[in-house]
Amino acid sequence: MNCNYACKTVDHGLSRRAFLGGVGGLGLGALANPLAAKGLAIQQKRVLVVFLAGGVSQLETWDPKPGVVTGGPFRAIPTSVPGIHISELLPYTASWMHKLALVRGINTKENDHGKGAYIMQTGRRQEPANEYPHFGSVCSKLLTEDKNPLPGYLNITPNGSGAQSSKDAAYLGPKFGSVSISDGKAPANLEKPAGINSEAEMQRHLLRQNANERFYSRRKSAMTEAYTQTYDQARMLMEKRGLFDITSESGKLADRYGKHDFGRHCLLSRRLLEGGATFVKVSHTNYDTHHENFDFHIEQLGEFDRTFATLLEDLDIRGLLDSTLVVVMSEFGRTPTINRNFGRDHWGTAWSVAMGGCGIQKGAVVGKTNATGTAVVDREVNGGHLFHTYLKALGFDSKKNFYVDQRPLPMADPKASPIEEILL
């Protein structure tokens, strides 16, 4: 099936992968008990963001409205929490609702892909004169220790080139920018040259370090600092390159995650978190369903559902879920109105996200939309409220400031506040 997109923005310039086969019939059983993660404190707080790019439909996921003109063809099914129903397209996730919470009253008032993604990742609207740090960069600064074995903010991208992006960090500086892991593969050139042993490699590193220190003592600048930090992040990945070898996992576990890209990327995300990463973002694409919304949600959520449930189970069995904040978000939802192409369009007015793990009330639902899903009727929140909530779930006072050149800069939007009902 080919998906025809009405939007002509640069956000749709990415190649669209065809759906990679159906999911098998293997149920969610208990995973084999793994060895304890080496070098990782169980209570080390970390974050996993699953970004459903393009704008997943809340009506086909977290806030179904069966039986009404806007509801679409799918049923609502019970979950592991009595009284909470989600779409029948998420049967495996439904069995993990007792570990999750839903926010069903989001109104960002934004229907543009880029601006919506910015709001959801920074908690602010874009301003011409100001850039705000992404959630991953904020977590990298607040949670990552100086001797952390991996860069603080790792972004597993479906395609494109692996690179470091200081823009995500805004005023926090390049040290806290994202490092992209293209298609879940180890960045190029991580292997030592064949003729260089570990001792020689260390000597080369110390020589370079000494030369740089002499240079910086006379000519240190933001540009040279950014270069050094980018090099240091690459060196961290070199020392942990074994984490990218997902073939070392059992075949049974890999099958549960799925052999498609999203399955591989989620398995890698767990390995990175277990290996010491502070913040990992993994994306699943193809949700911008202006045409054939229902067929494409069957396909895409068929990949997402079983993989996401397996990821939750894997984290839980390894003792990592309660110390990992897990958030499933998009840049916006989709219109209740079904267009003439059997699609749903962009909709930032009344939609949902799911979250769980560290600091989150299990089985909670906050917010409510009306019977047709066209408006929030209880506990409306925006991206700023969500950003405050994430920070407080991780144990931080979201009303505090960062200080840059002695200038106070609020961590989160001062006009918003945490969603207390969803927090422990």
Describe this structure in words.
This protein is globular. It has helices spanning 91-94, 113-122, 135-143, 198-219, 222-239, 251-257, 261-274, 293-317, 383-393; strands at residues 46-52, 76-78, 85-87, 100-106, 153-157, 164-165, 178-182, 279-284, 324-329, 333-334, 346-347, 351-357, 365-366, 368-369, 376-378, 401-404, 407-410. The strands form five sheets. The protein has a nine-stranded mixed sheet, sandwiched between helices. A two-stranded antiparallel sheet has the order 2-3. Strands 10-11 form a two-stranded antiparallel ribbon. The protein folds into two domains: 47-186 and 246-422, Alkaline Phosphatase, subunit A; 197-244. The chain starts with 45 loop residues before the first strand and ends in a 14-residue tail after the last strand. The protein is built from nine helices and 17 strands.
The H-and-E topology, N to C, reads as: EEEHEHHEEEHHHHEHEEEEEEEHEE
Trace the largest sheet across and list its strands: 6-7-5-8-1-9-12-4-13
Total of domains: 2
Q: Average the pLDDT over all residues and give the rounded result.
A: 86
The CATH topology of the largest domain is given as Alkaline Phosphatase, subunit A
